[in-house]
Every structure is written in structure tokens, then in C-alpha cells.
Design goal:
- With about 120 residues, the chain is mainly β.
- It is built from no helices and eleven strands.
- Strands 2, 4, 5, 6, 9, 10 and 11 form a seven-stranded mixed beta sheet that branches. The protein has a four-stranded antiparallel beta sheet with strand order 1-3-8-7, with no helix packed on it.
- A hairpin with a 4-residue loop joins strand 5 and strand 6.
- It is globular.
- The termini are far apart.
Length: about 120
Amino acid sequence: QVQLVESGGGSVQAGGSLRLSCAASGYTRTTYYMGWFRQAPGKEREGVAAVGSDGRTTVADSVKGRFTISQDTAKNTVYLQMNSLNPEDTALYYCAAGLGKTSWPLSRYFYAYWGQGTQVTVSS
């Protein structure tokens, strides 16, 4: 059973930074993607960034240049470094794991396992 535990959310002022962490356990396949998604009230859940088991990263245009995804395979942990935050980044952020390959790493339909979410609130 794959388990994902997020941490690092909080409240910051516009222009500030946060780093989210996602500790993963329970998966044994060597080909996978780990992704970060977010959902604001009344909006669809959207893909923010993803990293594959080969280290290749994908970042949504809306956060490109501000957000960076990385992973520490020894710790089975994925990080989302968020800089230059603005109020539009306020959302519940989820970590997700998808096993296998995909051509759409920011599509939520690929991911079968989800964390409980961590809230990010950015004030102006």
C-alpha cells in the first residue's frame, strides 16, 4: 500500500517562499512519477509539477520559474520549492504517486495514490 505524507504548508505573505515535502512509502516499482497538485476552492485540481523515476521534471506554465520540484530517492521524499508566492497560489496542495509511465505527468488521472493535502495560504 502506497502512503504519502505531506508537510511544509503554511501562511506567507506575497513574495515569500515555502518548501513542501512528501514522504512516500510502500511502492516497489522502479518506474513511477511523483507529482504535486493543488486545488483552490471552487476550482479543478491542477497539476503543478512532477518528477519521474528517471529524474525528468515537468512544471506547469503557471508556476514555471517560481516553483521547483526535486526528489531525494534515498529518503523517498519529493520536494516542492515555491518562491515568489502570490495570492493566486493559495490552495490545498496534494502529493501524488503514479506507477508506470505516462506522457502527461501533470494529469491527475494518471495518479492512483494521494496524500491528505497541506494548505498553502498567501496573503497580499
